[in-house]
Amino acid sequence: MNNISCLRCSIKGNIALQCSLVLSGIKPSNLLIYSNHCEGCISEELKNTGAEHMKLYTGSKESVSIIFNREKLEKALLDEENRKFIKQYGYEDFSVNSVIEKLAGRYTEFKEGRAEFPHEMGIVLGYPLEDVSGFIENNGKNYLYSGYWKVYKNAEEKIRLFKTYKDIKKYFVEQIENGKQIYQICFECRKFAEIAA
Questions:
Q1: Are 7 and 13 in contact (CB under 8 A)?
Q2: Distance CA 184, CA 136 (A)
Q3: Which one in 27, 102, 148, 167 has a CA-CA gap of 20 to 30 Å to 15?
Q4: For 189, which DSSP code?
Q5: Rounded to 5 degrees, what are φ and ψ at 65?
């Protein structure tokens, strides 16, 4: 990862750094933060990957989109406990597009200082409900471990999972540095998804 700062300059690099876990089939979604002038390139870079994107927020210089695997996100939103949790934030339609559209509105209100952070985002990003709830109950403190998210239960299991995440991200970034296209790496990384499942 010697050229990590260079990767941050390109939308391809940002996608590799921020969304490799979605593209490899492990997580249902991830946020992509990018310069506004790069927006038109996202669809092109995601071509043939199986991933989709929707914008959550447009800032003056940067925007935030959610990169997602529709099938995996649908599965997360079908979970009865997850539905019960996000329903308390006003969600009534649990289709992927409806959830993301509502999340976009709530996230925009947060970014503009008009509302609290939308904690249901953790569910959409594939974080375990026990950790999302733990974060809220503990105001982000008293966690057992902090990695890709703050862990409140089953720390050893999640530490192993985070190691797998780190290995996938490292591989993805190395392959981008070696000149491969994102869609080529996605299919190579799907083997990691089977290991982590």
A1: yes
A2: 39
A3: 102
A4: H
A5: -120, 160
**In the chain, which residue ranges form alpha helices assigned H by DSSP?**
4-7, 11-23, 42-46, 70-78, 80-87, 96-111, 121-124, 129-137, 155-177, 182-196
Q: What's the rounded Cα separation, in Å, for the pair 103 and 192?
A: 29
Query: Other CB atoms closer than 10 Å to residue 138's CB: what's the count?
Result: 12
- Given a cut of 50, whether residue 2 has pLDDT beyond it is no
37-47 b/e (C-beta count within 10 Å ≥ 16 → b): ebeeebeebbe
Tokens of 18: 């921020």
Which residues share a beta bridge with 53? 67
Residue 35 CB coordination number (10 Å): 13
Count of C-beta atoms within a 10 Å radius of residue 18: 17
Domain boundaries defined on the chain: 4-196
E strand or H helix that includes residue 181: none
Measured CA to CA, the distance from residue 18 to residue 11 in angstroms comes to: 10
**20-62 pLDDT tens trace:** 999 999 999 999 999 888 877 898 899 999 999 999 999 999 9
